[in-house]
Amino acid sequence: xxxxxxxxxxxxxxxxxAKRKYELYAQKAKEKNHPEIxxxxxxxxxxxxIHIKNHLRALSVLQGSEVKINxxxxxxxxxxxxxxxxxxxNLQDAIEGEIYETKKMYKQxxxxxxxxxxxxxxxxxxxxxxxxxxxxxxxxxxxxxxKKGKSVKKQKIYVCQICGNVEFLEPPEICPICDHSKxxxxxxxFD
Length: 191
Ligand SMILES: [Fe+2]
Ligand SMILES: [Fe+2]
Prior knowledge:
There is one protein chain. This protein is mostly helical. It has a single domain, classed as Ferritin, core subunit, four-helix bundle (Ferritin), CATH 1.20.1260.10. Helix content is 66%, strand content 6%. The protein has six helices and three strands. A three-stranded antiparallel beta sheet has the order 2-1-3. The longest helix is centred in the N-terminal third of the chain and has 29 residues. The protein starts with a helix and ends with a strand. It binds fe (ii) ion (2 copies). The site of one fe (ii) ion has 8 residues, from loops.
C-alpha cells in the first residue's frame, strides 16, 4: 500500500475520533455550565468533519472508487467516553491533539504526499495542518481564561467548509487558509 494511502487512513481515524471526542467534550462543558466552551468544541468538531470530507475525497481519487468513512474507521464510543474529564483537562487534551497533528502528523504526511507527487492528498493535509494550528490557538485562549476564572464571552463562531478554519464574530472576506470567499463559511449555532 502506498504510504500516502496509509497516511490518509491514519488521518481519517484521527479526525473521526477527534470529531466525536469534541462532541462529548461539548456535552460535558455544557453540563458544567460552560456553554461558550461547549460552543467552541461544537465548532471545532464540525471543522474536523471538513477534514474528513477532504481526506475521503483524496482517498477516493487515489483508489479510483468512492470510499466511505465506515469502511475505514470504527469509533470506540466506550473508550472515548472514558477520556472525558473536567473541562480544563479536556481543553488540555484537545490542545495536545491539535499540536501533535499540526506540528508532527500533518507535517510529515504533507512531505510524504509531496515526495510521491500526490497533489490532492498534499493539499488536504496542508489545509488540515493550518486549520489545526488555529484550533490549538483557540482552545489555548479559552483554557487560559478558564484557568484565570474569567468567563468567555458568547460570540458568533464560523467555520470554513473548505478547510475547517474557525473564526469568531464574522467570517473573513477571504479565508486566510484556503483563499475561498466568506460564502463558504457556516455559522455554528450556540445551544
Ligand atoms: Fe482540529
Ligand atoms: Fe478556508
